[in-house]
TrEMBL record:
One of its GO terms (cellular component) is membrane. It comes from Crotalaria pallida (Smooth rattlebox). This is Uncharacterized protein. Keywords: Membrane, Signal, Transmembrane, Transmembrane helix. The chain crosses the membrane at residues 233-257. Residues 1-26 form the signal peptide. InterPro entries: DUF1191.
Length: 307
């Protein structure tokens, strides 16, 4: 019974885990990694015969209106000797791409009005679109191999130039640079020049100001979003806890019923043992009582034997 109950619990736990993972995935609709993967594959479809050194502007589907993406393929030797300067990113010389390949492709992203859908900075408001520079390995026939590369900076850092910047509500507040890392982490740094940030590796960048200094409607909107997210989280947690509780209640009920049945059987066995002791024999897996084959010998009532 214990083994059967253990298997039953394993099945229920797998169902709960799958249900919980599906809820988490549905609650996080916009994923930066998924966007990078989509842009990488879409660029390969758009540019079938790429040329080294040519900058290509990638046309996106209508549902990505407002987002701008471009890509350039270069030889890694040329990249190390000359660097790359394109619109809002200036990559200086002597930057080493890893892993070492003959060619590389650099994907430039301007998320525009999609910035807040993929990225957010707690307690801050973005006043500029999120800009991204992602290096990938490349081959002679394929523009992007979709294998991301790391940029090792030995001298001057990469500079990020923001042009489409909204003025903060408080003119005395100085915007700060924000770099998005893995797992939703954010690193802050000061601007080196007005609306210019220094970057020490590849990734996504923007300008932010503290939320308390943001316009009133922005703060109210952020508060409403935060309240809505908290409500959704509590609803999901309550639903999952209720579902797990129901499963555990069913398992406990089954266990109690089986234990009660076994107790009744044991009680009946003990009652039968207190009765007349009989021999037993087995037929298959069934235990049955058996009377002794020895019969009582006949005895005469007196010693007189008739002649």
């Amino acid at each position: 019974m214990g083994l059967h109950l253990h298997k039953w619990w394993q099945v229920r736990w797998i169902i709960v885990s799958l249900f919980l993972s599906s809820l988490v995935e549905s609650s996080n609709t916009y994923k930066p990694d998924s966007l990078d993967d989509f842009l990488c594959k879409h660029a390969n479809k758009e540019i079938e015969k790429p040329r080294t050194g040519a900058l290509y502007s990638i046309s996106l589907p209508a549902n990505f209106t407002g987002m701008e993406v471009s890509v350039i393929r270069v030889r890694t030797v040329s990249f190390w000797l000359r660097g790359v300067n394109h619109s809002f990113f200036n990559i200086p010389r002597r930057v080493v791409p890893q892993p070492n390949r003959m060619r590389m492709a650099i994907l430039y992203e301007n998320l525009g009005n999609w910035s807040s859908h993929y990225y957010n900075v707690p307690n801050h408001t973005m006043i500029a679109p999120v800009l991204g520079v992602i290096p990938y390995t490349s081959s002679e026939t394929t523009l992007i191999d979709c294998e991301k590369m790391d940029l090792i900076i030995q001298r001057d850092p990469i500079t990020v130039h923001f042009t489409n910047v909204r003025r903060p509500h408080d003119e005395n507040v100085t915007p700060i640079c924000a770099k998005f890392g893995s797992g939703g982490s954010v690193k802050f740094s000061n601007m080196t020049m007005p609306y210019v940030c220094e970057a020490h590796d590849q990734g996504h960048y923007t300008l932010v100001v503290p939320s308390s200094k943001a316009p009133t409607h922005t703060v109210a909107h952020a508060h409403a979003q935060s309240k809505s997210k908290r409500f959704n989280i509590w609803w999901v947690l309550g639903f999952v806890i209720g579902f797990v509780g129901l499963v555990m209640l069913v398992l406990i009920s089954i266990t109690i019923v089986k234990m009660a049945k076994r107790r009744r059987i044991r009680k009946m066995e003990k009652s039968s043992e207190r009765g007349v002791a009989l021999d037993t024999f087995w037929i298959g897996e069934t235990k049955l009582p058996s009377a002794s084959t020895m019969r009582t010998q006949p005895v005469l009532e007196n010693d007189v034997v008739p002649y």
